[in-house]
Design goal:
One of its GO terms (biological process) is tRNA splicing, via endonucleolytic cleavage and ligation. Residues 45-267 form the T4 RNA ligase 1-like N-terminal domain. It is built from 23 helices and 27 strands. By secondary structure, the protein is of the alpha+beta class. The chain has four domains: 9-261, 2-Layer Sandwich (D-amino Acid Aminotransferase, Chain A, domain 1); 266-356, no CATH class; 364-571, Rossmann fold (3-Layer(aba) Sandwich); 587-758, Alpha-Beta Complex (2',3'-cyclic nucleotide 3'-phosphodiesterase fold). The strands form five sheets. Strands 19, 20, 21, 22, 23, 24, 25, 26 and 27 form a nine-stranded antiparallel beta sheet that branches. A five-stranded mixed beta sheet has the order 7-6-8-9-10. Helix 7 (266-280) crosses helix 9 (296-312) and helix 9 (296-312) packs across helix 12 (344-357).
């Protein structure tokens, strides 16, 4: 066992005061529930349980899947984390926390509660305690022994309760595989501190827990190579799993967790469960598949199977809705296809084959071509040429004046009522835009098209992976310059600066297609094009790819002459409609402005903080606990310009609750680069870097800076530089604030965008 780790009484008292205060906040406040355990009041704060001022149960800090947040993007993980990378199998059950009191009372908790509750039909905490007692008795130990040992070492056990006889999830746990899998031992401290996995495994063996399988990879390259290989089969050691939890260190030396969840077959199995429950709850057949994309063929076959199964076994309906029989029904379906229970990935191959060969007499396929591009990649030219060749539908987002978010999709669906194919012409350069399209197509299809219509989504990907963004900018800028004002909204002849700014915005926000992850996994087919190619070459590739995948879609060969003629015609396109950027004055007047501010560059600020704060405990805590703001801005009070020409920051201000930067802003400019005046009423301009917990809101930076300003008259530092680079001051409420003055020349950002934030 490791030596116990404790917070000071004052630190714990401060924590409790913050938690109590959070319950009084109307917006974003915390919630406390109290449960009786061993005659004591145990307070639950979601993942943290206290008795008085003592932490008795401490869960994990929240951690995220690869790519889910900025801190877990692959490039960030590669740069900011260090090995060894310790992987543990992500067991698929419900989490339980186990702590102990001084008198030997065991405290077993779910995420939210502990003990018996009348409002639950299935209580994870009670079941966890029951299984714990049973497993301890089997090895001649008692819960009292365990509780006293946990109290003595000031630790919490974190386990996964996996038992299909209690509650089924997605993966199978029955017989000897059922039980509590121990995957963590946490110190009961405010800051997250956890045991290494070798110590966790040793503890599990001594105290009768199921062991979570774990192993190490030395480098990030080895890690990603291993995970990508496992992703191909969705299995490890001949067992289908949900994925892995990866434990490592960040560059500053602290513990850091992230998840790598397999898309398949876990996602398909989950869809089986959800579509079954929808069917049993009476959802019509024509609506069961509307939210599913490329898996719809195997799901359609699965629905036919469960329809027959539940007709023969009506007594199984209610049990399934109570989460019993989920795995049994799935395995019976696998058996009906000649597969075993770990052949989930084979279902995807069957789905692909069905998409090619299965003839649904009642189903009519309609095809939606969705470009993924930025401005000037040639998507509209390619679309117009295809329409000229084959008479397909073509709906341009730039031709839609109505600000309804649904107009583009609804017009595409109406086009599909008479046409077999439609091009949904929009850049779709961000994942959220692609996700929005899928959701809206599934949502509105039932109202616009016959029930026997199936949508096939094809991505036209104009920007290859590993594209040089500077090259993309240069080539597409040349194209929109040559195009001049022949565009609905981007008039490069009339306003070249605005045109280049719009182009730069699209490129900076671009998110490449990721076919193994949602939402891009919804595409039935991806055609990889290249923005550098000529429109004729792109049209030829689209035609050959569609012909190969869907032979009946383009039954006759298309000559090069016909393609060249269609492209030449598309290049003479003259828009008859003009569209302006932004919302109308009428629509804006309906919104209430929350604040005006300046967006500032995130990587630059993080780099400066790493340089000047280093191992500072507050900065380390914010990074380890994912409390650094994903975007940074300077709050003003009013906006009448489009850019802040110069943003300079003078000092880093740190206190236990937060970190912020004191900044200065000057030289505002309008859209044409002319200097203009912007009134500022915020007393001390600043950027909130992050706060120590969700209970501490970003506006507290104003409070801290105002207190410092009244106590420390030299907070506003001049260009001559500070006499002391690091200074401390105790403000009125007793908080010690540290001020790191930045050396001259101070970091400066140019041409940062202004914005309005609406409630």
């Amino acid at each position: 066992m490791l030596n116990p780790v404790y917070d000071t009484d004052q630190e714990l008292a401060n924590l409790m005061a913050k938690l109590q205060h959070s319950t009084t906040l109307k917006k974003g406040g915390g919630k406390r529930n109290v449960y009786k355990v061993g005659g004591l009041d145990v307070c639950s704060w979601r993942g943290l349980f206290t008795v008085g001022n003592k932490i008795v149960v401490r869960g994990y800090d929240k951690f995220f899947n690869v790519g889910e947040v900025p801190q877990t993007k692959p490039q960030t993980l590669a740069a900011d984390t260090t090995g060894p990378y310790e992987l543990t199998v992500k067991e698929n059950g419900c989490i339980v926390f186990i702590g102990g009191l001084e008198d030997g009372t065991i405290v077993v908790c779910s995420k939210h509660s502990t003990g018996a509750r009348d409002d639950l039909t299935r209580n994870h905490a009670v079941e966890g305690e029951s299984q714990l007692k049973h497993s301890l008795e089997a090895i001649g130990k008692s819960v009292e022994e365990l509780a006293k040992m946990l109290y003595k070492h000031n630790i919490t056990l974190v386990g996964e309760l996996c038992d299909d006889s209690f509650e089924e999830h997605i993966m199978k746990y029955s017989g000897n595989d059922a039980g509590i899998y121990l995957h963590g031992i946490n110190h009961n401290t405010i800051d997250f501190k956890t045991y290494p996995m070798d110590a966790v495994r040793e503890f599990a063996l001594i105290w009768g827990f199921k062991c979570v399988e774990s192993f190490q990879k030395t480098s990030y390259t080895d890690l990603t190579s291993f995970l990508d290989k496992c992703q191909e089969t969705g299995t490890w050691h001949n067992r289908e799993i949900e994925g892995f939890v990866v434990r490592c260190k960040i560059s500053e030396g602290g513990d850091f967790f992230f998840k790598y969840k397999f898309e398949q077959p876990y996602l398909l199995y989950r869809n089986f469960r959800e579509v079954t429950k929808s069917y049993l709850n009476g959802k019509p057949y024509n609506e069961l598949l509307k939210r599913y994309g490329k898996e719809k063929y195997i799901l359609s076959k699965y629905i036919s199977f469960i329809t027959e199964y539940f007709d023969k076994n009506p007594d199984k309906r209610d049990l399934y809705l109570q989460n019993y029989g989920i795995i049994e029904v799935r395995n019976l379906f696998l058996q009906s296809l000649g597969l075993n229970e770990i052949s989930g990935m084979n279902l995807l191959a069957i789905n692909e084959e069905l998409s090619r060969t299965m003839e649904f007499s009642q189903v009519i396929n309609k095809y939606v071509l969705i470009p993924i591009a930025t401005v000037g990649c040639g998507k509209t030219t390619v679309a117009a040429a295809l329409v000229d060749l084959f008479g397909w539908g073509h709906i341009q987002n730039d031709n839609i004046a109505n600000k309804s978010k649904n107009s583009l999709v609804k017009q595409c669906l109406r086009s599909l009522f008479t046409e077999e194919v439609v091009v949904c012409d929009r850049n779709n350069h961000q994942k959220r835009e692609r996700k929005q399209l899928f959701e809206q197509f599934y949502q509105f299809k039932v109202d616009e098209l016959p029930a026997n219509t199936s949508l096939v989504f094809v991505a036209l990907n104009f920007i290859p992976r590993n594209t040089n963004m500077k090259e993309l900018h240069k080539i597409t800028l040349d194209r929109i310059t040559q195009r001049g004002d022949r565009h609905q909204s981007i008039k490069s002849s009339t306003d070249p600066k605005l045109a280049e700014k719009v182009l730069g915005g699209f490129i900076s926000r671009f998110q490449p297609i990721a076919p193994n992850y949602e939402p891009d996994s919804e595409f039935d087919m991806i055609i990889d094009l290249d923005f550098k190619d000529s429109p004729a070459d792109s049209v030829k590739k689209v035609i050959s790819s569609l012909t190969s995948e869907f032979p009946l879609l383009i039954p006759s060969p298309t000559s090069d002459e016909a393609i060249d003629s269609a492209v030449a015609k598309a290049l003479t396109y003259e828009p008859t409609f003009t569209k302006t950027f932004g919302s109308s004055a009428t629509s804006k007047s309906k919104k209430k402005v929350d604040f005006f501010g300046i967006k500032v560059d995130h990587p630059t600020i993080v780099s400066v903080l790493n340089q000047h704060c280093g191992q500072h405990p507050v900065w380390t805590h914010l990074r380890h606990s994912n409390r650094v703001q994903p975007e940074f801005h300077v709050t003003l009070s009013h906006m009448s310009a489009s850019q802040a020409h110069q943003v300079q920051w003078d000092a880093i201000v740190l206190c236990p609750q937060l970190i912020c930067l004191q900044v200065r802003v000057s030289d505002f400019a309008d859209a044409h680069g002319n200097k203009t005046h912007v009134p500022i009423t915020n007393s001390i301009l600043h950027v909130t870097v992050g706060t120590s917990s969700p209970e501490v809101k970003p506006y507290q930076s104003n409070v801290v800076l105002d207190q410092v300003a009244t106590t420390f008259s030299n907070l506003s530092l001049n260009d001559a530089g500070p006499s002391e680079p690091v200074q401390s001051v105790t403000v009125a409420d007793g908080t010690t604030v540290e001020i790191i003055s930045l050396p001259v020349p101070r970091p400066t950002l140019w041409s940062q965008s202004l914005f309005a934030h609406f409630l």
